[in-house]
Backbone:
């Protein structure tokens, strides 16, 4: 049943039968887009720290403020394709991708509230595990042995990068559990996004998926009682940066890359987000980045290289 929801295409959509772009990106360009997207997403903690609204409200504004950028992107794509009409494609895969990302952001913020940032980050890094386990079952992409080897190396690297600060405390177990759920939702988001890219262009998909996420997170923010509006100019700039850079830039470039790269390899490259977050924390907040963290970053890069596509 779940597999049918993932793989069902929108009927009568003649737009994308042979591929998702006029000229499919080369693997190198898709990889470059994915790395840039991971760095953009890795910058999100910087903006969240300066946003003077509640955690669920910041998650809502992250996606809501990206919508104007994404709708322009989608419109330009259709104009370049010689189409002047504009419509929102809400296929089952698009709906699921939006809902899964809403779940990812919601549980991520719950994890941050109930455990340490290091614990939450380490648990969230398990997302590629779910992608490798479920990829063949749900979206028909088989996982190679080198991908499994690359995943193990990346996980060891993530353990050194953020897991060295991991602490065990019974009072934080619920937060650690929320972090694990975050990783599951992010993994499912990858799978749904990969399927949706088989029939939709990147801008069109990013806008439709983000719209679903924004509607879901608006409800979550209202129910949580978070203050929705920022109280300062700095808070407004932080939220705008979160929407334009981390969401429109980061998630948009991820959608671009998933038109060429597999969900499995793409999920491993997203480990670079953890490297970027650690680097920004060291650069801007004087957070420690010693030999263990540097070794972890090196292992993550090595794991990605091991799992690279054959071409």
Residues:
């Amino acid at each position: 049943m779940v597999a049918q929801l993932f793989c069902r295409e929108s009927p009568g959509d003649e737009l994308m039968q042979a591929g998702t772009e006029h000229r499919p990106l080369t693997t190198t360009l898709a990889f470059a887009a994915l790395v840039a997207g991971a760095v953009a997403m890795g910058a999100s903690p910087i903006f969240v720290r300066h946003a003077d609204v509640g955690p669920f409200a910041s998650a809502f504004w992250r996606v809501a403020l990206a919508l104007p950028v994404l709708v322009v992107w989608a419109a330009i794509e259709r104009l370049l394709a010689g189409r002047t009409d504009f419509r929102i494609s809400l296929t089952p895969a698009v709906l699921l991708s939006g809902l899964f990302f809403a779940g990812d952001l919601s549980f991520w913020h719950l994890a941050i509230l109930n455990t340490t940032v290091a614990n939450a980050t380490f648990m969230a890094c398990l997302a590629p595990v779910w992608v490798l386990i479920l990829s063949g079952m749900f979206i028909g992409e088989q996982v190679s042995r080198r991908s499994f080897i690359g995943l193990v190396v990346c996980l060891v690297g993530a353990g050194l990068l953020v897991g060295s600060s991991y602490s065990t405390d019974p009072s934080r177990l619920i937060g650690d559990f929320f972090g694990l759920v975050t990783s599951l939702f992010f993994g499912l988001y990858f799978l749904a996004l990969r399927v949706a890219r088989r029939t939709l262009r990147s801008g069109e998909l990013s806008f439709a998926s983000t719209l679903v996420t924004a509607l879901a997170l608006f409800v979550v923010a209202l129910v949580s009682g978070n203050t929705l509006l920022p109280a300062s100019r700095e808070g407004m700039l932080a939220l705008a940066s979160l929407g334009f850079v981390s969401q429109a830039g980061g998630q948009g470039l991820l959608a671009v890359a998933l038109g060429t790269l597999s969900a499995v390899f793409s999920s491993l490259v997203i480990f670079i987000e953890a490297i970027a977050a650690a680097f920004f924390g060291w650069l801007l907040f004087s957070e420690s980045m010693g030999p263990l963290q540097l070794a972890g970053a090196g292992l993550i890069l090595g794991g990605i290289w091991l799992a690279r596509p054959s071409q």
